[in-house]
Each structure stands twice: as C-alpha cells, then as structure tokens.
Design brief:
The chain has about 350 residues and is an alpha/beta fold. It has helices at about 40-45, 95, 140-155, 170-185, 195-205, 220-225, 240-250, 275-280, 295-300, 320-330; strands at about 1-10, 10-15, 25-35, 60-70, 80-85, 85, 105-110, 120-125, 130, 165-170, 190-195, 210, 230-235, 250-260, 285, 310-315, 335-340. It has 2 domains: about 1-135 and about 305-340, Medium-chain alcohol dehydrogenases, catalytic domain (Quinone Oxidoreductase, Chain A, domain 1), CATH 3.90.180.10; about 150-285, 3-Layer(aba) Sandwich (Rossmann fold). Strand 14 (about 250-260), helix 8 and strand 15 (about 285) form a beta-alpha-beta unit. The structure holds zinc ion (ZN) (2 copies).
C-alpha cells in the first residue's frame, strides 16, 4: 500500500509498505480521509520531539472497515467510522475512568510506534472505532479529532447556560470552542484576536463579540462592558502564546474557570497571579483528553447542529501531502484545516 512515511526532519516520502496484519480485537480500515494536524507538522519538522522516524503519522482518521477480528457483532464490513486514537493499557485507574489519554502507558495511533492515517490502510483496535452514518461526511470525519478535545474540556468544566465564554484564538481549536460553547448554551461568546481576518472568522463560527487585543486600548475593559460589569464565566486559551496565556486571569470572573489548551514552547516561562487565583477562587484546567466527546459529537453532526466540515479549507491527495505541510511551513493565513482525500 501507499503511505507517507516520515523519515526524519522535514522528510516525508511516499513509499510502498506492506498492508498491516491485524490481530485479535483489531480492524483494518481503508482510510477515506485524514486530517493534517499542526502537531504532525511540528513533529515531522523536528520542532516537537514525539516518537521517532520512520513512522506513518496521522491521528485524524475517517475510514471504512475492510477487515475485522472481534467478538463484537455490531461493526459490519464496510462500516464507515472515525477513530478515537488514544490507546491506554486498559486496566489502570485512569483507563477505568475513561481517561486513557493520561494512562502512564498511553500511546496514540498516528504516533510512533503506531502507524497512522497518512496511508491507504491503517490498523486500529476495535475499541477505537466510532461508527458514523452517511450524515457525517468524510471531510467532517477526517477533522473530528481536532474538535473532540475542546469539546471534552467544555463538557467536563461546563458552560453556564446563558453565561459568557471568552476564547483566545481563531485557529481550528478556537473555532471548535466557539461552535461548541454556542451549542452548550453560552449567550455571549467573546473572542480575543489580533486582526480583521480572525474577526470575520470568529463571527462566522458563532462569536457574539470580538476584541482586537492589538488595537484596543483596554481589552479587559471591553470584556467587562460586554459582560455587564463582570468578566467571563469561562475563559479558554487556544493560542499557546506566552503573553496571551499570561493575560487569561485578567478576563475571568471571580469563581470562574480558565481552560488552558494552547501549548507554549518549552523555553517559555509562564507566570500566573497565584494570589488572585486563590482569593478569587479561579480554577485553572488543562485540557488534553478526548475520550468522552466522540459519540456526542457524532450525534450533534448527524442531527445537523454542528458543522465541523466548514473548517476544511484545503484538500490534497496522499501524493501531495508535503503541500499540506507547506501550508504550515509558510504560515498560510487561509489555512484552517487541510485534509488528505483518498
Ligand atoms: Zn491533531
Ligand atoms: Zn491505563
């Protein structure tokens, strides 16, 4: 089969490799579409040290079951599906709580040593298969993974019905937070960004307010006005930029929640106003998991309340995969999500 093999820094080549053999409780999927994630770009470019080459990356997968070896009877051959890619040991306390992504033996399909979706076929554990109906397109399926983690954190922390959520950033994660916060009942969705393009994007995806931190003389004051003298109930950082992360406590109301999703670079030292967090009872949450959100998200796409496929701005064939990485390399402003179509 054809696969895009990561061979070393900035080196991804299309190669012929064997179709994987499946074992017990495993399935072989024919990949229909795969999302190209910024994380993969950072790994293949050498900036982010996760796993090692050679490996087939790709953890955002929409496929079709072509072989299956399981006691389960509810997944027929030909079943279209998405893949919940986190793999845990299955028996530790974290795994039993459904948090295999923080299991000490946790790994993920699409990260070494597990080949992923940038190939014609991929092997997955049967437990990772999330079936989808025809109402979920290949495009939507291919990028669903990038929506799952934001959704999981909002499900865990909760969006006050009629409340306010402030989101920093309008990348794919920021947009996912906007769409899901709206669905979960936020009345005010305030987006922080730096330019007009991001502002247009924010409103298109459901923001009610936009605060341009580059041009506003008093961004915090604007947020206080928008929230009628308070600040936001939930604040989400989805850029990973040090100054943005450090400003998050300024925007959250007393007793509120901060979700940290963007990952700063290893060199960044982030300072947080601990006294303020203590005396104002502000909770700070990390967000990396995604197990519980898969099925609810599929249902919300199927019933038409959530349109994730609008985030797909670029489509390539597997042979063209380096063009997708070039979009990241060149910091292309038109990119939200790129997918590989098979
Ligand atoms: Zn990803
Ligand atoms: Zn475990």
């Amino acid at each position: 089969m054809k696969a895009a093999v990561w061979l070393g820094d900035n080196q991804v080549e299309i190669k012929e490799i064997p179709i994987p053999e499946i074992g017990e409780e495993e399935a072989l999927l024919k990949v229909r579409a795969a999302g190209v994630c910024a994380t993969d770009y950072h790994i293949i470019s050498g900036a982010l040290k996760i796993g090692k080459a050679p490996n087939v990356q790709g953890h955002e997968i929409c496929g079709e079951v072509v072989k299956i070896n399981t006691k389960r009877t509810d997944i027929p051959l030909g079943q279209r599906c998405v893949v919940a890619t986190s793999i845990g040991c299955g028996h530790c306390d974290y795994c039993r709580e459904g948090k295999q992504y923080i299991c000490t033996e946790s790994s993920e399909i699409g990260y070494f040593p597990h080949n992923g979706g940038y190939a014609e076929y991929v092997k997955v554990p049967v437990s990772a298969i999330v079936p989808i109906s025809d109402k979920v397109s290949d495009k939507a399926g291919a990028i669903l993974e990038s929506t799952v983690c934001p959704t999981e954190s909002l499900m865990r922390i909760g969006v006050p019905f009629g409340g306010s959520v402030l989101i920093a950033g309008t990348g794919p994660a920021g947009l996912a937070f906007i769409m899901v916060a709206k669905l979960m009942g936020a009345a005010k969705i305030i987006v922080l960004g730096r330019d007009e393009k991001s502002q247009i994007r924010a409103f298109k995806y459901g923001a009610t307010h936009y605060v341009n931190i580059k041009t506003s003389p008093d961004a915090v004051g604007e947020v206080i006005n928008i929230t009628n003298g308070n600040k936001a109930d939930v604040v989400v950082e989805a850029t990973g930029a040090k100054p943005m992360i450090e400003s998050m406590p300024d925007y959250v109301k007393k007793g509120g929640d901060i979700i940290l999703y963007g990952i700063p670079s290893d060199e960044d030292e982030i300072s947080f106003p601990v006294k303020k967090l203590v005396v104002e009872e502000i909770s700070v949450h990390g967000a990396v998991g995604n197990t519980k959100a898969w099925y609810p998200l599929v249902k919300m796409i199927e019933n038409g309340s959530l349109n994730v496929e609008q985030m797909v701005t670029h489509e390539f064939t597997l042979d063209e995969i380096n063009k997708a990485f070039d979009l990241y390399r060149n910091k292309d402003k038109t990119l939200i999500k790129a997918i590989i179509k098979f």
